[in-house]
Specification:
The radius of gyration is 20 Å and the shape is globular. It has 289 residues and is an alpha/beta fold. Helix content is 45%, strand content 8%. Helix 10 (200-208) packs antiparallel against helix 11 (213-237). It binds zinc ion.
Length: 289
């Protein structure tokens, strides 16, 4: 089981007392009874969520797998804000390698997993954050129909725009649902590989500060869900379980933004179009001209 906690950095894991955060599950399974990378890990470049996750799942750098940013480079707006939601087609992913080696391969909300060659893939994807997301995610899930099947029991599967604690709670429920409903029966015949992802700590840190109470609270909730998933996975595998908790990058509080173009415009050195009253699609069209 491979679980990614977005933006989890070493000082949060090893400086819990100093920061006033309690992570009993990570402490028990990894610090006291497992192995840890105490000094942290060297991330890939660029250290964005999507390149990092595709690197974790392929073992290659962004220059090799080709997912070089979160969003697709699109200065003229042709792709309407699309992200690199998709697993790359250049190098093999762990989902595919596991399946080829006789594992049942599954994933919940792992970034860059649309189109992943696995057995039970609930990918991270979104359109507009509305109910349409469930239908579209269901259409690109493996197998098709699994998201709507799971939603009958757990409620709405969180699309990639819902990075809240509540969204992560749904991701946790989805991972638990796959463990209980898809992997528990399979594990008698073959091992499974399950990847999962939690986003709320990173989002809380972005919105409220890296060391804010909100960020600490989000991380403590993730720690609890991690414990529930480990317990369930230990139960269905009768203890034959390897768990890796990984992260993509750290984060620092941003105190100042410097926008040199504002000064250049005030000095009359550049001109910018007045975009204030125009619809976003008109903006896209005007850039395309
Ligand atoms: Zn991230």
């Amino acid at each position: 089981m491979l679980i990614s906690v977005d933006a989890l950095k070493p000082d949060y894991v090893f400086g819990q007392e100093k920061l006033g955060v309690r992570l009993p599950v990570i402490t028990k399974y990894f610090i006291e009874n497992g192995r840890t990378a105490r000094e942290g890990m060297k991330s890939v470049f660029p250290t964005f969520t999507y390149p990092c996750h595709q690197s974790m799942i392929t073992g290659t750098n962004p220059a090799v797998h080709g997912i070089v940013n979160n969003g697709i480079f699109d200065p003229t707006g042709e792709h309407l804000g699309a992200w690199y939601w998709f697993a790359n087609r250049k190098v093999k992913t762990l989902w595919e390698a596991a399946k080829e080696c006789g594992y049942c391969s599954a994933s919940v909300a792992f970034p860059t997993s649309v189109g992943a060659k696995g057995d039970f893939i609930a990918p991270e994807f979104w359109w507009d954050g509305s109910r349409l997301d469930s239908i579209l995610i269901d259409a690109v899930a493996k197998p098709q129909g699994m998201i709507l099947e799971m939603e009958n029991e757990i409620g709405v599967y969180a699309g990639g725009l819902d990075l809240s604690d509540a969204g992560d709670a749904q991701r946790g429920k989805a991972a638990m649902w796959i463990l209980k409903n898809k992997l528990a029966s399979v594990v008698k015949e073959k091992p499974f590989f399950l990847s999962a992802y939690f986003a709320s700590f990173d989002e809380s840190a972005h919105q409220n500060g890296v060391y804010s109470d909100a960020a600490k609270s989000s991380l403590q909730k993730i720690d609890r869900m991690l414990g529930e998933l480990i317990e369930e996975a230990e139960c269905i595998t009768e203890g034959h379980l390897v768990v890796c908790v990984v992260s993509d990058h750290g984060s620092l509080d941003n105190t100042y933004n410097i926008s040199p173009n504002v000064l250049l415009k005030k000095a009359g050195l550049i001109e910018t179009p007045d975009l204030s009253r125009r619809h976003s699609m008109d903006i896209v069209k005007s850039f395309q001209k």
